[in-house]
Amino acid sequence: MNDFATRNKVRYRPNVTIACVIEAENRFLMVEEWINGAQKFNQPAGHLEANESLLMACAREVYEETGLTIQPQHLLRIDQYSANSELAFLRFTFCCQLPHCQQAIPQDSDITAAHWLDYDEICTLGAKLRSPLVAAAIDSYRSGPRYDLALLNWQFLTLAAGVKP
Could you say which of 32, 80, 116, 149 has the lowest number of CB atoms within 10 Å? Predict the structure, then answer.
């Protein structure tokens, strides 16, 4: 590759997002939002922000979208997802099991409600699920392995000058 081609090469930069499957009493906490005029349901989820660890992002997004203060207990899965030819995501999905369903009050005005739904209720939502990752994450939670959070390393997050986690 010549120098000109190297300098002008566009890098692939997927959006890094987190999500959290939260389960209590065989129900899953789902958030409701309206996107382009369409009602959508998702796990609490959002984008990783600068100078934030994945665990910090998870706790922040859960609080913003549900009002609950929790810490993820396990890493559930990592997905690469292309919503279209120009929009791609690298999604880290965590999980947390609570002893009881807790009242969830969204703090983010983009979230219109939070609901505790059982698996069958979620399956009936079909196209109202924000992406195929929503159902896949719940299926993984129900049947798949969970990974220890020690797998994630954020010790080098503060190498940039002035960054405090």
Answer: 80
